[in-house]
Specification:
Elements (H helix, E strand, L loop, with lengths): L1 H28 L4 E5 L7 E7 L5 E8 L15 E5 L4 E7 L4 E6 L4 E7 L11 E6 L2 E6 L4 E7 L5 E8 L8 E7 L2 E6 L3 E6 L6 E2 L4 E2 L1 H5 L5 E7 L5 E7 L4 E6 L9 E4 L8 E4 L5 E5 L6 E7 L4 E7 L10 E9 L8 E8 L2 E10 L4 E5 L5 E3 L7 E5 L5
Antiparallel strand pairs: 1-2, 1-30, 2-3, 4-5, 5-6, 6-7, 8-9, 9-10, 10-11, 12-13, 13-14, 14-15, 14-16, 17-18, 18-19, 19-20, 21-22, 22-23, 23-24, 25-26, 26-27, 27-28, 27-29
Length: 392
């Protein structure tokens, strides 16, 4: 009889565990695909969640006030949002540049879980505070104090500040964008220089490879890396340049350090400050930041080479409703990404929606008839992010 009771208890426990596992999986899978904005409002900032529909259209879901204030501007590629999608928690982190705080938002409840600041000298009130997540750490680039803060991610989407390190470009430039892959962090500075760091112990330690980019040399300082993205296998770092045309630079980082960048000139559209790889890494999307369009380049992930792909037409509302394009997002996390979203900096701001088609040899970028979607809560939208994020 006792053996039967033990067997029954074990069977019941296994059944409960199976139910819990199935329920947890179903709950996680039930999350909608969000496009998220950091509204960066100078009066009362917040984060706005849009649900991505099956047809790629955006539907306003909810705005979450952060309790802080932004600056409604700053560097194009300083990403003011970071997303954590782990097996234990799903979080969105947003920075408030003026008040200097970083806010955690629980995706399950769409509620603020806590607010944290760096050291008393950390500041991004001039051009923003960039964010990036890797494993158990969140990193913040403070563009005014020229420091990188390290924060430990705690349960409930909260953060604990650990320390900060001082950084600077070779010409004394301020830190701009960050990208993470494994134990490596790659950053850009606004003076044409780039650098990588070892983050295996949490706090960034320079790899001793700080250098001016090839594009910076060739253009006599008229072009310089702004945004950065690392490929899925960690072999290449891609840099979108601030330039009078469309310029992207590529560095082989397979050795664990930055190598000299190769320059690709991909069109005459003005500026290429923000870039985003498609989930299958066949296309690199380029926000022509000071122009009126979006471009795409073919990317060979095995060689790191780029070639011109296609360019959209003039996006609606340019100069009459908004002035600049900024960061990019995707409708789906497979293939070429489906619909491409672009932050449009204005007062109020908006989000452009561009359909992507590709057969591997040709591509098109066509703005949807319902585009753009207004982001009435933002007077200076620069940062958008997807949840769930692409896996690199």
């Amino acid at each position: 009889m006792r053996n039967y009771i033990v067997w029954w208890r074990r069977r019941s426990l296994a059944l409960l565990l199976w139910i819990c596992t199935f329920s947890c999986f179903a709950f996680a899978a039930s999350h909608p695909h969000y496009l998220i904005t950091n509204d960066d409002d100078a009066l009362s900032s917040g984060v706005t969640f849009y649900v991505v529909g099956e047809n790629g259209l955006l539907h306003l879901d909810q705005r979450v006030l952060t309790g802080g204030t932004g600056i409604a501007g700053g560097y194009f590629s300083t990403n003011r949002l970071a997303v954590l999608d782990s097996r234990t928690q799903q979080c969105v982190y947003a920075s408030d540049a003026f008040t200097g705080d970083i806010v955690g938002i629980d995706i399950n409840s769409l509620a603020v879980s806590g607010s944290t600041s760096g050291s008393p000298t950390d500041s991004g009130n001039a051009n923003g505070i960039g964010l990036a997540v890797s494993g158990q750490y969140l990193y913040a680039s403070f563009t005014t104090s020229n420091t990188i803060g390290t924060f430990e991610i705690e349960p409930g989407c909260t953060l604990t500040f650990i320390n900060d390190v001082s950084v600077a470009g070779l010409q004394g430039g301020f830190i701009d964008a960050m990208a993470l892959h494994g134990n490596m962090m790659v950053v850009t500075y606004v003076d044409g220089s780039i650098e990588s760091f070892d983050i295996s112990s949490g706090t960034p330690v320079s790899n001793g490879d700080e250098q001016n980019s090839t594009g910076y040399f060739e253009s006599q300082a008229a072009s310089y890396p702004n945004s950065v993205q690392i490929t899925k296998n960690g072999h290449y770092a891609l840099f979108g340049d601030t330039s009078t045309s469309t310029v992207v630079e590529v560095s082989d980082i397979s050795s664990g350090k930055l190598r000299k960048t190769t320059v690709y000139r991909l069109g005459s559209e003005i500026n290429s400050s923000n870039i985003l790889l498609s989930p299958d890494e066949t296309l690199l999307y380029i926000s022509n930041t000071e122009g009126d369009s979006i471009s795409a380049a073919w990317f060979d992930a095995s060689t790191g080479k780029l070639s011109f792909g296609c360019t959209s037409g003039k996006l609606r509302g340019y100069s009459s409703r908004w002035s600049y394009t900024a960061q990019l997002g995707l409708g789906i996390n497979t293939g070429t990404g489906g619909t491409l979203y672009v932050a449009e900096f204005g007062a109020p701001s908006s989000i452009g929606m561009v359909a992507v088609t590709s057969n591997g040899a040709t591509c098109t970028l066509a703005e949807l008839s319902q585009s753009p979607v207004p982001d009435l809560n933002s007077g200076g939208l620069l940062s958008i992010e997807d949840f769930p994020p692409v896996s690199f």
